[in-house]
């Protein structure tokens, strides 16, 4: 049997940086192969080479036995290779329907694009892929991340590719079963899937074999069933890295007054939400797609309007109209999407981190580079970001290191309250452990964290307690000793103490 995909000796360099070096593997018809590696291992570069986004410097690729060297993503699609990217490729200012058929939407006899026809066809495609809760006329930018992720996946599947590339496809999905069902359909058609994920349970469930990259080179191509988790992590990182959560003692300062209080907040997507955050506390927030978590975090830093209710900092009511105003009060939001909301791609890593305090390194309108570096180097150890990355453009960093830079920027101004919205989404095991260590160190020093995650096990193992959102309000609060994934999911699904509410169950997905 000839492989559907044959990658032979692929290499790619960016100046002195080796992104890929002599990588070879194959994909057989009807096979799901996992692609693993830490951030910066070369996975994204390999996906870009296969997608037509990047041209390799050396090596050959064959698809269905024919040479494959696309110059654009459109050409890759036409040749039978389709990609659902982790960093979504959708255009936020266009509708779901138009995005579904880009870059060549169907035209009528007059050469015009019929919006009605596109929306009707998009609705049929979404329905065929098990998506009935997304309006084809909706603007992509108005949709929560989980919905956008599903559209990205459906668009890739609709092209009926011979080879499907799924890049961290469940990073924003809570309901993985929807995706797993679609993968089964792809395999039944005889196509193959390259599945990039940091989640070993997904790799073990879907993949017969996996390819592991480290420092741009393939270090393993083996059957998944023949390897332990520890062996896989060791191959990925060159050391033994076990993805475990060790619960630390609570750092809450008993008897201390709250450092952040939300009192009966009401606004778009928020229905009478109240909570208090104590010094030294990690307060978790759980919720399924579209139940107000994103709006809540935005409202706390002035990005979403409030109709009523108050926010108190250290017991004093404050009006917060912008993230800058929030930062001055010691409240900093680490946003959901680092690519579009967290980083400035055209700036260096150092400039991205120093932005909030660059005035401290400015003399006579000029930036003192040494002073700037001292400010930045004071916080980068907290997130384990190597100093060698500071002069580089942040766009050249892996996703995990970009997220570390975003966290370093949050810390650099002396934040006392961090609002972390799914901070480990799409980062590898090592970066996750660095983020967990930063969180625990931050609260141990008296800081406080409001923490939302789509990974329920993170909430269970990191938080002192957890509030659960349902229909934009708080469905319940779970104490530290009662935290479990089942308990959180039950409340997030509209059940109270195991008794379902009269409301219909919400769509499963990621954050709103």
Structure in a nutshell:
The protein has 512 residues and is of the alpha/beta class.
Layout of helices and strands, plus pairs?
Elements (H helix, E strand, L loop, with lengths): L4 E10 L2 E11 L4 E5 L6 H9 L6 E6 L2 E2 L5 H6 L2 E4 L11 H6 L13 H14 L16 H14 L4 E5 L8 H13 L3 E5 L3 H7 L2 E6 L2 E7 L5 H9 L22 E8 L2 E8 L4 E6 L5 H8 L7 E6 L2 E3 L4 H6 L2 E4 L3 H5 L6 H6 L7 E2 L2 E2 L1 H9 L2 H4 L15 H14 L4 E5 L7 H16 L3 E5 L3 H7 L2 E6 L2 E7 L5 H8 L2 E2 L2 E2 L12
Parallel strand pairs: 3-8, 3-9, 6-7, 7-8, 13-20, 13-21, 16-19, 19-20
Antiparallel strand pairs: 1-2, 1-4, 4-5, 9-10, 11-12, 11-14, 14-15, 17-18, 21-22, 23-24
Helix pairs in contact: 15-16
Averaging pLDDT over every residue, what do you get? 87
Q: Given the helix and strand composition, which structural class is it?
A: alpha/beta
How many whole angstroms does the radius of gyration measure?
Answer: 23 Å
Number of strands: 24
User: So what's the overall shape?
Assistant: globular
The number of helical elements comes to 18
Q: What is the terminal-to-terminal distance?
A: 45 Å
Residue share in helices? 25-40%
Main beta sheet:
6 strands, mixed
Unreliable residue stretches: 239-243, 497-512
In order across it, which strands form the biggest sheet?
A: 6-7-8-3-9-10
Estimate what percentage of residues fall within beta strands.
Answer: 15-25%
Q: What quaternary form is this?
A: single chain
Question: Can you describe what's shown?
Answer:
Helix 15 (399-412) runs parallel beside helix 16. The longest helix is centred in the C-terminal third of the chain and has 16 residues, at 429-444. The model is unreliable at 239-243 and 497-512 (pLDDT under 50). The chain is an alpha/beta fold and 512 residues long. The protein starts with a strand and ends in a 12-residue tail after the last strand. A hairpin with a 2-residue loop joins strand 17 (362-363) and strand 18. It has a 6-stranded mixed β-sheet, with helices on both faces. It is 31% helix and 25% strand.
